[in-house]
Design goal:
Elements: E1 11-17, H1 21-30, E2 35-36, E3 45-46, E4 51-57, H2 61-66
Parallel strand pairs: 1-4
Antiparallel strand pairs: 2-3
């Protein structure tokens, strides 16, 4: 797996795609962050300029964390 690590000082979030997606977005909404999604994109819109993220399969999030992407 080839992963390019982010170079900015943004906090990069790994967000689950699929069955956990709506519950995760609802949890972030309760915490005050609005995360938008486009069904054709893995990059969400987040209303905080210090946050960035990607939607990935839940079982792959730990691998991205291990490689320093999230």
């Amino acid at each position: 797996m080839s992963v390019t690590k982010p170079t900015s000082s943004l906090l990069m979030l790994g967000l689950p795609k699929g069955s956990l997606e709506q519950a995760t977005l609802a949890l972030f909404a309760k915490a005050g962050w609005k995360i938008g999604q486009n069904s054709r994109s893995y990059k969400p819109t987040i209303d905080d300029p210090e946050l960035d993220g990607r939607f990935v399969r839940a079982q792959e999030i730990s691998r991205y964390v291990e490689h320093g992407f999230f």
